Amino acid sequence: MVRMQDLVFRYREGGFELRVESLRVGRGERVAVVGPSGSGKTTLLHLAAGIVVPQHGRVETNATELSALDDGRRRDFRARHVGYVFQSFELLGYLDVLDNILLPFRVNPTLSLDAAARERAVSLARRVGIADKLPRRPGQLSQGEQQRAAVCRALVARPGLILADEPTGNLDAKNKQRVMEILHEQALAEGASLVVVTHDLDLLQDFERVVDFQELVGSQESVS
Ligand code: ADP
Ligand code: MG
To answer: At the N or C end, where does the chain have fewer CB atoms within 10 A?
Structure first.
């Protein structure tokens, strides 16, 4: 569950400003966010995850006010509650793909990295067609394979909130479908909220709600 209220966010440099009067994503709700490049969609997901905090207003995720927590507590919150598929994947180059997928088990102290966790990682990888790539480093994978590994990592610890930033941007039609299926299926299975930024209009029909980013932020423009 995400609630944003009267939010204003500015980067330290560059002059981009994001204003969101009100955004709510209910528990278990599956929402797509669409909008032009550079409009602030990634920034919005970063705010929902507490990667950045607004200068004004509130961001509440899973009933925790993220804007009131320091960096360390927000990191801890993310590790426990959020599965995030980064637009640029953010896989760690020095770990193999399996260990990348299992990363949430290393950063969340309430989870133990046991045989069941490994099985789940392998099973997710199989579902998205990268099971044979698990011993490799991310640098030895195609962009599309890295993207699928990032999706597995976001889902492996059964987070209550799944945030995915253009998670099918590098995929062919078949893999797009596999990735979207697994995102929806896992959200439904865990009662998790799912927020997906996408440019792919074909995918919108599977969501309960589509948020048009430009309507969300009104007619404001970047002040840069
Ligand atoms: P989108 O995901 O919709 O393409 P972003 O949220 O990535 O948009 O970016 C919104 C705006 O903020 C863009 O103008 C971008 O250049 C700017 N921006 C993104 N990250 C930073 C940053 N770290 N510092 C300053 N400006 C940034
Ligand atoms: Mg983006």
So the answer is: C
Q: Determine phi and psi for 2, rounding to 5 degrees.
A: -130, 135
What distance in angstroms lies between residue 175's CA and the mean position of ligand 1's atoms? 27
C-alpha 54 – ligand 1 centre gap (Å): 14
Residue 40 CA: nearest ligand 1 atom is: 6
Q: Which residues are 165's β-sheet partners?
A: 197
Among residues 119, 102, 109, which one has the least CA distance to residue 157?
Answer: 102
pLDDT grade for 219, boundaries at 50, 70 and 90: low
Task: Give the atom of ligand 1 at the shortest distance from the alpha carbon of 165.
Answer: 2
Nearest CA to ligand 1 atom 13: 38
All structural domains of the chain: 2-220 (3.40.50.300)
Cα(89) to ligand 2 centroid in Å equals 12
pLDDT band of 88, cuts 50, 70, 90: very high
Considering the entire predicted model, what is its pTM?
A: 0.95
Average pLDDT score over residue span 210-223? 77
- Short-list 102, 100, 172, 180, CA closest to 142: 172
Q: Which residues line ligand 1 (CB under 6 A)?
A: 11, 13-14, 16, 35, 37-43, 222
- Give the whole-angstrom CA distance, residue 136 versus residue 106: 19
